[in-house]
Predict the 3D structure of the following.
Amino acid sequence: MGLLKFALVGNYKDYYKKLKELSKTNGKSPRLMFIDTAICTVLLGSGLQDYLNYKFYEKSFKERKTYVTIGYMAKAYKTLAGVEYADFISNKVNFHKNYSKFTKRECISPNDDYEKFEKFLEKHEFFIEKPLNGLGGSNVKKIETKDVTSHKKFYESLSKENKFIEEFILQDEIWGSLSPNSTNTIRIMTTTVGDTVKIIFAGARIGSGKTIADNFHSGGQGVLVDLEKGTLIGNGIDKNLNESEKSITGIKFDGFKIPYWEDTKKMVKEAAQVNTNIHIIGWDVAISKKGPLIIEGNRGPGFDLVQVLLKKGTKYMLEDLKKEIKNQDKK
């Protein structure tokens, strides 16, 4: 990507404003940081947000090379999480069908008949509305059934707006105490090569309480998880890299024990074996009153949460996976 193309991609005017604000604290020229961003884009395939998320402005080129940038990730996922499996896992209705053992909740798609839709509304006081394909927790709504004034119009809108609805998750009280008004989740990243499944990362996403979504990109905070102990580590970090010791309810993150942790790890490892052609998946796990369940699986998950929480580049994770696949193919 050349410098001209770089200038045309993304909201670079807004980005430059962010660099000007950043310069007030780090003392660096916003113009030089903008040029540096462009160089990183050309040489490392990084995006505007990569430069800010990973604080490239204070890192050496050697350090920057250790990061999974958006460009590097796109190339790697062509072989590690091929687009031919997108419909299998990324379409949320298909995901419910293919991973029903792990989603553990009812959903209604635009393809379901009206009678089934009516029965769903009769059973549930609340439900969640989502786009069939979506990222970042956007356009996710919690709806009270009694507020649906015209069932027929709402049913018809599912097809028109490419949406579906699913059963509302009743959150475990201990887990929900961190932010009761959001569905708090854990992003668990697995790799699969043949019969071998590994968990390579876990990070909790705790909601701000302003929306039902907990997402790192929707006002929530990320907190690192100890894979062995199932406890939260350190502070919560939001997308602007602000840190806090406690959740919005005043509960300290560090040392907080995640309920059902061993069951959670067992569940995602089993789910990863449903389609072993997808070598890396980011699972979004909720902790319900009845135990863990999977909200969705992300084919080719992003690495921003991973690298922000670990505060280092994790390109080695994908490089190791490539080597493991190569060795498997030789057998």
